[in-house]
Structure formats: structure tokens, C-alpha cells
From TrEMBL:
Cited function: Chaperone for NapA, the catalytic subunit of the periplasmic nitrate reductase. It binds directly and specifically to the twin-arginine signal peptide of NapA, preventing premature interaction with the Tat translocase and premature export.
Chain segments annotated as coiled-coil in the UniProt record: none
Record's subcellular location: Cytoplasm
Species this protein is from: Shinella fusca
Quaternary organization: Interacts with the cytoplasmic NapA precursor.
Gene label: napD
Highest classification ranks of the organism: Bacteria, Pseudomonadati, Pseudomonadota, Alphaproteobacteria, Hyphomicrobiales
Sorted UniProt keywords: Chaperone, Cytoplasm
A GO term for molecular function: signal sequence binding
Protein name (database record): Chaperone NapD
GO biological process: one example: negative regulation of protein transport
PANTHER family: CHAPERONE NAPD (PTHR38603)
Family named by the database record: Belongs to the NapD family.
Length: 94
């Protein structure tokens, strides 16, 4: 029986203190599983990816304690489920 792997994707909004947006963006660039999709007027929209909800939550917690961050809130989470190859055929489940 093939093993089912899960890939979690979440979006979040970060609020930065006035004058701290550049420093927050620089810190976010150091996270392997975080992509910045927009930043304006102290707000940052990001996507976090990982193998579990726990990894996403841990990443968001680490972001929330960065210098210059007022708040970091998860907005949406989606889980992709993918089966390993079986008998030379690949099957995906959503």
C-alpha cells in the first residue's frame, strides 16, 4: 500500500511596527519555508509551507516574536495529500 504524504500550505498576515518593515522583511528572508507575497504600510502577506500543521504553527510563532513584529496571524491553511509511486504509476489524491 502506498504511503500518503501531506504538504501543508498556509497564508498569514504580519503587522510590523512603524519603521520596522525593512528589518522584518530581512528576517523573513532567512526562513526556508516562508515566501513574502506582498508588503505595504507595515503589513506583510506571506505563505508558509511544511509537512505538518505543527511546523506551520511553529514557524508562525517564531515570526511573531521577531523584533519589530506586532502580530502574525494565520489566515488560511490547505493540505495537499500525495501518494508515493506504486507499481511504477504515480497517483495523487486531493
Amino acid at each position: 500500500m502506498p504511503e500518503v504524504r501531506r504538504h501543508h500550505i498556509s497564508s498569514a498576515v504580519i503587522a510590523a511596527k512603524p519603521g520596522c518593515l525593512d528589518a522584518v522583511l530581512a528576517a523573513l528572508a532567512g526562513f526556508e519555508n516562508v515566501e513574502v507575497h506582498g508588503a505595504d504600510k507595515g503589513k506583510v502577506v506571506i505563505v508558509i509551507e511544511g509537512p505538518s500543521t505543527g511546523v506551520l504553527g511553529d514557524t508562525l510563532m517564531r515570526i511573531s516574536v521577531l523584533d519589530g513584529v506586532i502580530a502574525a496571524n494565520m489566515v488560511f491553511e490547505h493540505v495537499e495529500m500525495e501518494e508515493d509511486e506504486a507499481d511504477g504509476q504515480r497517483t495523487d489524491a486531493a
